[in-house]
Amino acid sequence: MVTGNSARRQVRILLVGDAGVGKTSLILSLVSEEFAEDVPSKAEEITIPADVTPEQVPTNIVDYSAAEQTSDNLTEEIQKSHVVCIVYAVDDEETLNRVSSHWLPLIREACAPDQKKPVVLVGNKVDLIDYSTLHSILEIAESFPEIDSCIECSAKTLSNISEMFYYAQKAVLHPTSPLYIMEQQDLTDNCRKALTRIFKVCDIDGDGLLNDYELNHFQRRCFDSPLKPKVLDEVKAVLAENVVGGIEKDSITLKGFLFLHCLFIQRGRNETTWTVLRKFGYNESLEMSSEYLYPVIKVPSGCTTELSHRGQQFLTQLFERHDKDKDGALNTAELRNVFSCCPQVPWHHLRQTVPTNEKGNLNLQGWLCRWSLMALTELPRTLEYLAYLGFNVHENESQATAIQVTREKKLDLAKKQSSRNVYQCHVIGPRDSGKTTFCRSFIGVGTKKSKSPAADTDSDAIHCCINTVQVYAQEKYLILKDIGVSRVSDPLQPSEVNCDVACLVYDTTQIKSFEYIARIFIKYFAESKIPVLVVGTKSDLDPVHQDYLLQPVDFCTKYKILPPQFYTSKDKKKDIFIKLATMAAFPPLRRMIDMLYLRPISTEWFSSCARHLKQFGLIPGENASWWKAGLGLAAATVVGFFVVRVLNTSDR
After folding, report:
1. Within this chain, do residues 571 and 630 fall inside the same structural domain, yes or no?
2. CA 359 → CA 331, 352, 423, distances in Å?
3. Domain ends where: 569, 587, 605?
4. DSSP string covering 250-282, please?
5. Domain end (from 376, 406, 436)
6. How far apart are CA 307 and CA 172, in angstroms?
7. Cα separations in angstroms, 202 against 99, 322, 368, 477
8. Is residue 417 a part of any domain in this protein?
9. What are phi and psi of 319, to 5 degrees?
């Protein structure tokens, strides 16, 4: 396996130890590749270029001399270093004893508790003895987990000199302590958790096993080359021999996958496990790095974000993979399993937000709706969860390709239609006007309270309902957001006003209900370019005369907006929602109505307007009186236009 480069750009190695153990000789032997008979008390700091180091990282080697430096100098050097090599003389037991009694405690004291330096123990002068001191070192390592590795060498014979500095580099670039607990001979909890997530996102078919295809996909991502069949067979043989349940159906289990990484670390091949972890977004603390979780996506003012085709495709495949019972929906256990490699399930209150099946389980339509809502309103969180779920593992550079940035809204207005697929509708009305029931009916549920847990990470989403509607045979996502304003005197925030279409709801059975939305319209929407639809609820009951200057129909006529639409909770049709989505998709529709009142129209423009208005059910048959009034006004305008022309001609 070929290892990848570390994220660190430089390594600083400090050598410490008692006088006479050979610290300076080790540095000089590395640089000159021969033993120096004349050795100064301290070597100058040496920089080794990246191209001559195994890890391709520039390395600084720093010597310490008690004769030339103070204890304060030593503390400062320890803090600046990335790894400390404690050198002892293998032929001098006192220097070995002082490793644990003096040097290791001193290094600990110089570092903050959460910033322990990795330590390499170096036994020099092995050319003078015919035995090993490593058994004594292993006993010390049990009490000091910061000890990353131990090595014996000789500055005089150049034995293991290069290896010693390579071990020091590796202790920084591929440290053991975040991965492995020496005393327990096992992976750390964080390492196990990270590798488990990696296993799950690489398990493409979701069967809990890594087959040959999945293993090669994993190998190519991490090491840029597939596993040779012979090597793959050898790996499986090792697992079959050493781990009960490591191999099933000629595939590697999670248990086998974790054992392999234990084996790599035990054999000093930390770089293999670190390469895997870094390829899947983990940093030195075994946390997913912010660069991996949040790729930069620029969203200019007036633009929005929604799922790209590639993003929808990935999420559809993810849904199908985890729908184990193939009933077209994710039950609670299946949904939890989808997000088992994430910090938590990102959504609750799903029945109040998106379409579900009759059991309240999330179907594919509801699944894509919920992701579309999050992509529009919580882009960073969407990118984060796509990373956890492994979007950028499967032939994608980053989650950025799962997101599409729409064009600016002003361009939509100029082109008289929107290219977007997700629209926000703010539903505003007085208390008890029925707006919550109106929103919930969009996803086919009532206002009954959910049994979902109170603690919720998507609290804003419980005020939203999202579903799909057909606009001219194209599927669009429409988000209805219930804006909770209790009194007309309470100001709306810009975020509560800014939307693609506004739905102002009043109760036809309450005399003061329309006044509320009339004032809201005049204050916030009369001068805006946001399309507005007025909806009267409880239309199956006897309406009352509204206590306001103008009745709803007259008000809409005066302000040149579509006439009131009437709704009852018993109505199962989606006509009103289609009208709202169409108004959002074709924002110039309101301008068309203005023009119908204000200026003469061509046959071509009239036909275009008629097509749009037909979508709203405003042609004869549904609201014939309003349509005829519009035609009458248009006809009068046309006649007036010709009269003026005739008069002008007569004056000449």
Report:
1. no
2. 9, 13, 28
3. 587
4. TEE-HHHHHHHHHHHHHTT-HHHHHHHHHHTTB
5. 406
6. 40
7. 44, 14, 22, 31
8. yes
9. -60, -50
Q: What is the DSSP letter of 407?
A: P
Residues 48 and 94 reside in one and the same domain:
yes
Least confident of 129-138, 220-229, 524-533, 616-625: 616-625
Same domain, 568 and 423: yes
Structural contact between residues 7 and 55, judged by C-beta atoms closer than 8 angstroms: no
C-alpha 40/C-alpha 321 separation (Å) is 67
CB < 8 Å & 24+ apart, contacts of 463-466: 464/353, 464/373, 464/377, 464/439, 465/352, 465/353, 465/354, 465/439, 465/440, 466/353, 466/354, 466/369, 466/370, 466/372, 466/373
Same domain, 418 and 457: yes
SS3 2: coil
Whole-angstrom distance, CA of residue 383 vs CA of residue 399? 6
- Collapsing DSSP to helix, strand or coil, 347 comes out as coil
Residues 6+ apart with CB under 8 A from 455: none
**Which pTM does this prediction carry?**
0.80
CB of 260 closer than 8 Å to CB of 266? no
Is 311 part of any domain?
yes
SS3 91: coil
Residues 574 and 478 in one domain: yes
Beta strands in 153-219 (DSSP E): 180-181, 186-187
Please tell me the distance from the alpha carbon of residue 428 to that of residue 436, in angstroms, as a whole number: 10
Instruction: Find the farthest-apart pair of alpha carbons in the chain and give their distance in angstroms, rounded.
Output: 126
Q: How many domains does the chain have?
A: 5
Rounded to whole angstroms, the Cα distance separating 436 from 446 reads: 9
Same domain, 301 and 389: yes
Q: How many residues does the chain have?
A: 652
Q: Are residues 80 and 200 in the same domain?
A: no
CATH number for the domain including 469? Answer: 3.40.50.300
Range of the domain at 132: 11-173
- DSSP assignment of 103-124 equals IHHHHHHHS-TT-PPPEEEEEE
Closest CA to 616 of 550, 565, 650: 565
Helix (H, G, I), strand (E, B) or coil at 532: strand
613 vs 382, residue with greater confidence: 382
**Residues 316, 340: one domain?**
yes
pLDDT, tens digit, 9 for 90 and up, residues 318-368: 999 999 999 999 999 999 999 999 999 999 888 889 999 999 999 999 999
- Kind and range of the H or E element at 179? none
Does the residue 2 lie in any domain? no
4 within a domain of the structure (yes/no) = no
CATH, residue 261: 1.10.238.10
Closest CA to 614 of 652, 578, 570: 578
pLDDT tens digits, 439-471 = 999 998 764 444 443 334 455 566 899 999 999
In the DSSP assignment, the letter for residue 440 is H
